[in-house]
Amino acid sequence: MEMTLKTNGEQEQKSKSAKLILLFAMVSMTMMFAGLTSAFVVSKSRADWLKDFQIPIAFFYSTAVIIACSVAFYLAKKAIQKNNRSATSAYLLATLVLGILFVALQITGFGQIIESGYYPTGQGSSITTTFLYVIALMHLLHVAGGLISLLIIIYNHFKQKYNNTQTLGIELGAMYWHFLDLLWVLLFLFLYFFK
Fold this sequence. Notes:
Layout: H1 2-43, H2 57-81, H3 85-115, H4 127-158, H5 168-193
Helix pairs in contact: 1-4, 1-5, 2-3, 2-5, 3-4, 4-5
C-alpha cells in the first residue's frame, strides 16, 4: 500500500512538472508570436504596405481543419479516460490526418499567394507577404513539432502505455494541440482583420 502511494505521488509530481514545462514553452512561443505581430503592426505604416492583399482561401479551410484537429484530440483524451482504446486510436489517427491536411492546406495557401504574384523574398515580394510567410511558417514549424509528438503518442498508445489511470502523454499532446489551434485562430483573425 505504501509503495502504491509513493508511486502515485511520484506520478502526480511528474505530471505537474511536465505540464509546467509545457506551459513555459507555450508562453515562450506566445511571446515570439507577439513580437512578430507587433512588428507587423509597426510595419503597416510603411508606404509599400499592401492595403488590398487578400488572405488565400486555403487559409480559411486550414483554420477549420485545425479546429477539427483540436476537437479530435479532445475526444481522444476523453476516450482514454474511459479506457476506450479503439475510440482513442480512431481519434488519435483522425488528429494525425487532420494535422497533415492542415499542413497541406497551408502549403496550398502559399501557392495561392505566389499565383497572385507575391513572393516571400526578392523582387516580387512585399513586406506584407513577407510577414505573412514568416508568421505562417513559424506556426508550421510548431505544427511539425506537434505532428512528431503525436506520432510518438500514437506509437505509445499502440504499445499500451496509456489507460484510464495513465494519460499524461495524451494530456500533454492535447494541451499542445489546443494551444496550436488557438494560436492559429488568433493569428488568422489578426491577419484577416488587421490588414
